[in-house]
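Progress against Task 2.4 (sequence-to-structure conversion) is shown through the following example record, which the project officer requested during the mid-term review.
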Amino acid sequence: MSKLRFEIDNEVTRCIRQHARSHMTTEVCGVLIGGSGKGDYGNGVVEVRASIQALHAAQAGTHVTFTQDAWETIYRVKDESFPEARIVGWYHSHPGFGVFLSEHDMFIHRNFFSSADQIAWVYDPHTDEEGCFGWIDGEVHRISSFSVVDNNGDGVERTPKEKDSATVAESGGVQGKEKAAPPAWLRWGTTVLSYLSAMVLGFAIAYFLFPHLLVIPVNPATGEPVFVQPQAPDTSSGRSK
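Structure tokens generated for the chain above:
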């Protein structure tokens, strides 16, 4: 198990929530800035003191990617505002689909945040659920060994959130509950039902709003419509056929 502990300033979590809530349908991301606190590396505390938004990231509804422009902006801001600090992780939002790391998220974490003291913070702005993921014995897992600290000293939560999806530890930290990704069959089923519903609705609108076609034969010589005369009954034998 990792011996590292993480302390995240509540102003950092406030900024992450604000960033995520400004994009409720697409993922956003950024990096976490901090450094080692008391203790030596491997036994100490990693303090997350600030965050930098990835303003030029490639955003989509279900994934986000750090682009070259995003990294250039991040490093420029870091050098200007936090020259003595390090990048200790990253954050991103999951708007409406829970707190977990997808395969795409795992790729980003393994390739860009592979140090033992780097974490991934995930926040869902629809439910206000948030969670922390980090390296444990060489693998990425959801971790509970972190605390949200109040360095402002006033004890005020500036971005209140529901606590239904989290348990507050006795030390004052927040420990998130594990939540797995929705199963693939459920996602595919929902997609198929959405398409079928759209098709049915489209046919219904077309049937009621647009005129129906009536085919009438036309005499090619005169261009006038040809009406079929009903056959008169045969009265030659005194009765109808």
